[in-house]
Amino acid sequence: MIKELSIIIPVYNSEGILENLTEKLILTLEKKYNNFEIILINDASRDNSWKIVQKLCKKNELVKGINLRKNVGQHNAIFAGLKNCNGKIIVTMDDDGQNLPESIPALVNELNKGFDICYANYKNKKHNFFRKFGSFINNLVASILFDKPYNLVLTGFRCFTNDIKNEILKFHSAYIYLDGVIFSCTSNYSQIYVDHKEREIGKSNYTASKLIGLWLRMAFGFSIMPLRLASIFGILLSFASLVIAVWLIFFRSMSSAIPLGWTSLMVIILFLGGIQLLALGLIGEYLGRTYITINNPTKYSIKNKINF
Q: Would you say residue 253 has pLDDT above 60?
């Protein structure tokens, strides 16, 4: 049955937040929409999150649960939700309670003006310094790779149409980055400013390694920019090595105990060898991801589904 609205929430170690968040969602959405669903995707949490999801599904059929066998990350977990949702409009949000359910109608209203996707930007972000810095770098990298305006800030609180969902589901690589897929198929986007709530329980699951992994997905999954940068870097280093070599050969003091020609040879070898290793590493990264994609690995594996 086609739903008016689908809310997709990836869940990871949020047993203390889920019940309150879900109750607020239902109370808010029932005032505006007649037919909606809330899909909670448990991304192999290490706490009792799945038990809470089961409890919520049993209490209300509007809540649907998906339990993944293995932790696959936020974007892949959302992909599992997209594969199983039926809404004409899809909203994705975090499980930490910082995205306010009251902001969803405003997102939907903006989308209904004719946009394909609408992002929620935060008036006053309540994240810690590390998370804010990571978001700043993420937005900067995305602006370069996806040719998006810098003032359009990418967040996990977004709303898009069923047509965009269908485009996302065509993506085959295991290294999925949702916003990269979205910007590859549309430039019809908008954003609104919403309130951001302090996190009541626990701490952010984003670590430095996860943020770096996210940037690598963006860089190698949706752009050849790293290869272009390697080429430019190689040209600059080659030119620099030539200049240094000329200086060492013609202008270096001849009183040096180092054999003539040895220094210039080492300079050239080190410069060219370094850039070649860098370029080979970038090419290897692309080839490795291509190889994995060709082998068609699973983005996720579902263990249990409730209320579907």
A: no
Quote the domain boundaries for residue 260. Answer: 225-294
Task: Check if the beta carbon of residue 143 is closer than 8 Å to that of residue 223.
Answer: no
Helix ranges (DSSP H) in the chain: 18-30, 49-59, 74-84, 104-111, 129-146, 162-168, 178-185, 208-221, 225-250, 262-294
The answer to whether residues 165 and 284 belong to one domain is no
Please state which of the ranges 82-86, 162-166, 262-266, 300-304 shows the lowest mean pLDDT: 262-266
Mean pLDDT for the stretch of residues 217-232: 66
Give the CA angle between residues 190, 121, 118 to the nearest 5°.
Answer: 25
Structural domain contains residue 301: no
CATH of the domain at 211: 3.90.550.10
Short-list 181, 211, 189, CA closest to 299: 181
Domain count, the chain: 2
Pick from 169, 187, 222: which residue ends a domain?
222
Task: Count the neighbouring beta carbons within 10 Å of the beta carbon of residue 120.
Answer: 25
pTM of this prediction?
0.77
Tell me: do 206 and 142 sit in the same domain: yes
5: helix, strand or coil:
strand
Tell me the mean pLDDT in the region 217-240: 68
For the chain, the residue count is 308
Residue 140, classified by CB atoms within 10 Å of its CB into exposed (0-12), middle (13-18) or buried (19+), is exposed
